[in-house]
Hints:
By secondary structure, the protein is of the alpha/beta class. It has one domain (12-218). It has helices at residues 39-42, 47-51, 55-70, 72-86, 102-114, 130-135, 171-176, 201-204; strands spanning 12-13, 25-26, 90-93, 119-124, 157-162, 179-183, 195-196, 215-218. α3 (55-70) packs across α4 (72-86) and α4 packs parallel to α5. The longest helix is centred in the first third of the chain and has 16 residues, at 55-70. The radius of gyration is 17 Å and the shape is globular. It binds iron/sulfur cluster (SF4) (2 copies). One iron/sulfur cluster binds next to α1 and α2.
Amino acid sequence: MSKVQKKEIVSISPGNVKMGNDIPSVSLPPIITCQDMVPCASEGLCYVIKNMKYQVVVNAYSRNYNIYTKDPEEFFNQVKGYIMLNRPQYFRFHVGGDVPCQDYYDRIVKLCEEQKDTEFMFMTKCYMDDHYKEWMKNPVGSPAERDINFDVVPDNLNIIISTWPGHPIPQDLRDRFPVAWLDDGRDNRIPDDGYICKNKCNECLHCWKKGGKDVIFKIH
Ligand code: SF4
Ligand code: SF4
């Protein structure tokens, strides 16, 4: 595998309007890092693309994925370097994109274990792989296999399982992780006591709390 040239710098956002200025994040391009035909993509409702207003953001996400695919270690070294330099209390993976493969998740785990002073979080639909699609024909229990497994979850990593109306949640994930619900009026599984997103992460921090309630994103 060829090494990337040093001029290719991983783009890390120091914050944005929703997250506030003190929660940095690193993102990947939507759709191509998501499982084939995740329902948000196939229904033309990817909310990341909807909110991507600037070409510079598209380029940044693409460059990040390009660096990762060419040299995964370089990608994660740069993320680690940013964290060591800036020492954020909270960090988010994937305002855009998703966990593309097991190697990527394993490197997230390593990073979390090395940077214990930072709390990490991501939401994911990476469980919606080919095994999941097969399982959906008779969704009892959980799919027998999964392309990306969260066997090890460090204490400072919070994983939130992102759902979609009409798509079942594997029971083992339901048992282990909080769930993010999209409330567009179609999903009658949404719990009454779920936490409604406040759209201001640095004042809320709900999604970084281990064992927190499910989070509900209301779509108007
Ligand atoms: S999983 Fe997220 S980034 Fe991927 S298509 Fe769906 S909304 Fe977009
Ligand atoms: S619930 Fe809170 S922490 Fe989670 S996405 Fe919404 S504002 Fe951010």
